[in-house]
Amino acid sequence: MKATQRLHDLGQSLWLDNITRDLLSSGTLQRYIDELSVTGLTSNPTIFDQAIKNSTAYDAPIRGKLLNGSSGEALFFELALEDVTRAADLFRPAYDRTNGVDGWVSLEVSPLLAHDTASTLAAAKDLFARAARPNMFIKIPGTKEGLPAIEESIFAGIPVNVTLLFSREQYLAAAEAFLRGIERRIDAGLNPNVGSVASVFISRWDTAVTGKVPESLRDKLGIAVAKRIYNAYRYLLGSERWERVYNLGARPQRLLWASTGTKDPKASDTLYIKALAAPFTVNTMPEGTLKALADHGEIGASLGAGSDDNEEVLTQFARSGIDIDALAAQLQDEGPSRS
Predict the structure, then answer these.
(1) Measured between alpha carbons, how far is 80 from 134 in angstroms, rounded to an integer?
(2) Which of 123, 266, 307, 324 could form a disulfide with 227 if both were Cys (CB 3.0 to 4.6 A apart)?
(3) Which of 139, 220, 227, 274 does the annotation list as catalytic?
């Protein structure tokens, strides 16, 4: 049995963090669904930008759209919507089979709006309406300005992938925004079942401290922060406030591990996948990482069985001069330019 299947059987959803028109047209994405247990997909503006630059598949559509008067960001989102809606249709069977737990695709609002609440909300409503797919997440950054847009989007019934979360505190703020939106729907007599995931970025932590900490701490910060967040996640899922909304028909906001491709050439190419195996979470991974997992990955114990050593590791980073809170704020602030 492939490690991808074992991870799926453990209860973690495997999503692909990539999309290109070639991936769709060649049947490769369908093969990943059929053979590698992939049940969802995430995208961001950088992924689309690279796809458009590195493929001739977009040349003719771009020429046609230019002739029709589209240009700039409007043209970009027309192309992106064409791709993500095709992907959403491929994942629709998983969405239907799991009653909406899985089978999602994600499209991000413009990174230029990361600090503009009103424009982010307007863009989220516009993109979700144009996609016209029930299994479409709109990605909204969990920045200070993004949080009100997340709450309002959830209240409006728009499924949200909260992106650019790095710390426990940022995750908790995003979870609170989600919950407020759900509670407002309940109070308004609306269906509280609105999908959401909270995307926590992992590898950027370790990249940020490369060369700044002892060798014994190499590639350990991202995993330690993830474990801290996972413990908070499990606590929230069992809290009375969250259990109340479940009892009234809401679904939990799942935790998603993002940025799980290994950046350190000296480390295992499945480092973060193995370390963050956990039920009722999502791991969205680059194509290379997915292939490596299927080829030679190993899945051991669940994260839930051994997630209590993280605070000691984080203490060691603090002793080495790393201010976790300040670095989390910096990473989130820099995030929109790297999405």
Answers:
(1) 17
(2) 307
(3) 139
